[in-house]
Amino acid sequence: MDQFLITGSSRIAGEVTISGAKNAALPLLAAMILAETSTTLHNVPSLQDVRTLIKLIAGMGIKIEKQGDTVTCDTKSIDNFYAPYDLVKTMRASILVLGPLLARFGEAEVSLPGGCAIGSRPVDQHLKAFEAMGAEISVENGYVKAKAPKGGKLIGCKFSFDMVTVGGTENVIIAATLAKGTTVLGNCALEPEVVDLANMLVAMGAKISGIGTSIMTIEGVERLHGCEYSVVADRVETGSYLAGALMTRGDVLTKKTSALLLTPVLEKFEDMGAVITTGDDWIRAQMKGRPLPVDIRTQPHPGFPTDMQAQVMAISCIADGTSTFIENIFENRFMHVPELNRLGASIQVDGHTAVVKGVESFTAAPVMATDLRASMSLVMAAATAEGESLIDRIYHIDRGYEDVENKLRSLGVNIERINTND
Ligand code: EPZ
Description:
By secondary structure, the chain is α/β, with parallel strands linked by helices.
């Protein structure tokens, strides 16, 4: 299992080019299943999760391949509608193939995604919406078996989600594009990745209005054609690297990204004392002194994103004062806390609230990554600690941060990947 050996302390400063968003690439790849002619997707990040989903789609007999950051897909040779547990269990967003398979082919058998470290991650809203569209859904032996009503087409309907769900919104928008009639979806997620998906579907011939709002209307069409599209920049990768500047009186320029994608995060960075400057496709964070404390409540977009909670907590650990974090989206997203405390932080958790008493600096220690975004918070903390820190189970970080060592090295971090053979 690979580890990172990080020798601090570094001032995190330099330029880094941001990759396409993992959380946009995954639904966009799933949506390619809808197209009757070939589709080309650019700016696709080289990540473990992307490789897993491509393997899953190829397993259906679909011709899909990635050359560099471009994925081409031709669905003509599809010969099954099955998503096996051994792949789905490693990448729970695989559930996003359910919507396109059901919508276009009228049937699908997709393994239920397991939970993960940060929560049980149910998909009840996805299934409830598909049933409202006339699908017969059964769950047998850990698999969701779904069949469209007689005639093989889902039926447009009015449906509102019980809570804001990014994946649920994505799965149902995809399915509604080929339904008979019109679907009106309420309480939709507003995340930039949902907007990116809707925009690609429109480029494929879908009829969608209300994009970027909480009520979306999708008028079903007979068929969708391929298109050429480019994945939106990764706002979480952007925020993760900018956070390093705030922790080390640093100066980080992120390129090929947009401030519009992470306004709530940039506002908090300014509250913590950073000078943020932006252009059409870049964001710069400069930090002169020690970070100021901050209060964070994670919310669906346009609130503060849960995917940046761990990274901003790492900044607050060395702030001049006490910060509070309330995690409203997932039931167990504080697993980075004991690891940050091993690095010298002073954090107390009480249910969904974490109270962080700022300390002068982190101290080097061996720690363990527990989930994707927690990993990056530990990397940044170790980079600011005097001495050597060993971070275990860094396969988590490979799921969501493309070319992470080289990007960190370009920002001045002394990092080495160690392959342990166990
Ligand atoms: C997406 O997960 C992202 N993943 C997550 O990013 C992100 O944290 C999350 O949205 C919230 O923004 C991808 O896009 C691949 P949800 P998703 O459905 O779609 C509950 C990362 O680090 N819920 O919006 O799975 C659920 O349990 C990852 O990149 C139900 O109860 O999130 C959670 O508490 C982590 N029933 C809340 O809603 C459902 O049917 C939000 O989940 C669906 C969700």
